[in-house]
Amino acid sequence: MTSFTNTRLLRGGIRRTLLVILVTLVEMFGAQPNEGTTFLDGVKAVCLDDKVSPTPGSCIVLSFGMGNEWSFEEAMAEYGCKVYAFDPTIRQPDSLSGHGIHFRPLGLGGVTGVASFHGTEIQVCTYRDILKLIDLEKSVIDYLRIDIEGFEVDFFHNVLNDDVELLANIKQIGMEIHPLASETLRDLMWSQIRQLRSLHFSQVSSLPSMGWTYTFENKTVSQFYEMLWVNEKFR
What we know:
Layout: E1 2-9, E2 15-22, E3 26-29, E4 32-33, E5 40-41, E6 44-47, E7 60-64, H1 71-79, E8 82-86, E9 101-104, E10 107-108, E11 113-117, E12 120-125, H2 127-133, E13 141-146, H3 152-161, E14 170-177, H4 183-198, E15 201-208, E16 213-216, E17 219-222, E18 225-231
Parallel strand pairs: 7-8, 7-13, 8-9, 10-12, 13-14
Antiparallel strand pairs: 1-2, 3-6, 4-5, 11-12, 14-18, 15-18, 16-17
């Protein structure tokens, strides 16, 4: 819950202060505990406010980067969404049959082609090419989940500069960001997030990892953060 005050100067010099309370309903979907830790992997925040909440039976979810952890995708399919899942590092699990989850072994990047990931070549596509592939270029995407281990910078660079109109069709973006020790990379990422906010995406949730940290400028900071943005144009 977020609150702020709005003070107005009325006739005769009388001030009236209004307390405005904005309530955002957020629910966590998915989650499996990582072996040997209490950290829950796969969990994502989903906003259930009117007009931006996924509608069971007609909602569309795009999910990038599962790493064989499918609890979020299964939860959204059970909720009533059609789920399109993408990850270039894994094969399709047999357990997904009949779950309403459509899988392709592709990654999300800034260009369509071959990229290197931990010394292995992977196939990546731009966001527009992914939408074309699944025939959703003109469709509203209820939830875009992105957990692509640093490639989110390339994704943002592409859509914010070349395909910004595609963002207008997305209701919610749930993303794991990785602001690692490179100050240049951190500055670039925060600049991209500011651009996203300028396009009417408001941040409604930000959760740091509880188990993975490093030292930056003599401070202990998280290696990654789970972010949720909502497109205010749908409200």
